[in-house]
Amino acid sequence: MDRIEKLKNTSTPWLTDAGLETAMIFLEGIDLPHFAAFTMLDSEKGRNALTRYFDEFLQTARTLGTGFVLDTPTWRAGTVWGAELGLNTDQIQAVNRDSVAFLQTLRETWETPQLPIILNGVVGPAGDGYAPENVLTPQVARAIHDAQVAALVDAGVDMISAVTMTHSGEAIGIVRAAAEHGCRSVVAFTVETDGRLPTGQTIGDAIGEVDDATGNSPLFYMINCAHPDHFRDALTRGAPWLARIGAVRANASRMSHAELDQAEELDFGDPAELAGDYRVLQQMLGQLKVLGGCCGTDHRHIAAIGQSCVHAHAA
């Protein structure tokens, strides 16, 4: 059974990492221009920091006896943000291939039959991850993201994840690009404090729109970059689309996106409290397969979430 099939058929949640960019900036003191974590691969210091970062999460997964989804640090490695950093298309593709190669060495070190590891190619939004200045059509989104998706797939990722999507059109374009390159995909939507996407669309309607446009192509959907308090009430009990939500990567903070954008200090929240929030979500969402974190979270939060949800599920 390949790794994707193991994830699809798992009866115990797998783990993933936390808020990579915020952890590097606020905990490691590393400057990330435009939040571009892939720039860390350019130096020994950066690679060592990334290795330490992922090693902690992988050790937690090993201890809990579950699988792990290992994300490439490529949220800002698309053609739009790459251009902002002075990179041309060839250089952007090289960055994405290097990111996959870096994580392949980690998988070779850590993977066992008890700890299956999926290499997940992360594709971020072409615009602001909090506010869609330009709502892209699927056709435009596919063209914008194709070079990055192609490089990640060619380098050997197991799946593509469209992360922090603010609108369904961009998500559809990335899903179609992944499918055309022969790779499975996941879509992660972000929401505001009212539980709706920044465009005002509901989570359920966004999931339905992407599924309708892609023939239910995504493996599952994820909610990321929002606190559980922001979207818990939007998870309408009994709604069929709830079964399509397979992952959560929540923020540690209850701040809105606008407040987080202006914050000069990181709000770590309370890891134990966040783990309790995840346990509630796990009871509401029967198909959760991957648990991780987003802004403000680190290994402490994921360890607490794992203890609360992986052990509880196994019991």
Percent range for β-strand residues: 5-15%
Largest sheet: 8 strands, parallel, barrel
Number of strands: 8
What's the total helix number? Answer: 12
Structural class: alpha/beta
Any low-confidence stretches, pLDDT <50, length ≥5? none
Overall pLDDT metric = 94
The run of helices and strands is HEHHEHHEHEHEHEHEHHEH
Distance N terminus to C terminus?
25 Å
Q: CATH top level?
A: Alpha Beta
The dominant shape is globular
Q: How many distinct folded domains?
A: 1
Major sheet: arrangement of strands: 1-2-3-4-5-6-7-8
The Rg value, from CA coordinates, equals 18 Å
Annotated CATH architecture: Alpha-Beta Barrel
Q: CATH fold name, please?
A: TIM Barrel
What is the CATH H-level superfamily?
A: Homocysteine-binding-like domain
Helicity range of the residues? 40-55%
Description:
The chain is α/β, with parallel strands linked by helices and 315 residues long. It has one domain (3-292): TIM Barrel (Alpha-Beta Barrel), CATH 3.20.20. The chain has helices at residues 3-8, 20-26, 44-64, 79-84, 89-110, 138-155, 168-180, 203-214, 228-231, 257-262, 271-284, 299-314; strands spanning 14-16, 68-71, 117-123, 159-165, 184-189, 221-224, 245-250, 290-293. Strands 1-2-3-4-5-6-7-8 form an 8-stranded parallel β-barrel, surrounded by 6 helices. Helix 6 (138-155) links the parallel strand 3 (117-123) and strand 4 (159-165). Helix 5 packs across helix 6 and helix 7 (168-180) packs parallel to helix 8. The longest helix has 22 residues, at 89-110. The chain is globular, with a radius of gyration of 18 Å. The two termini are 25 Å apart. The mean pLDDT is 94.
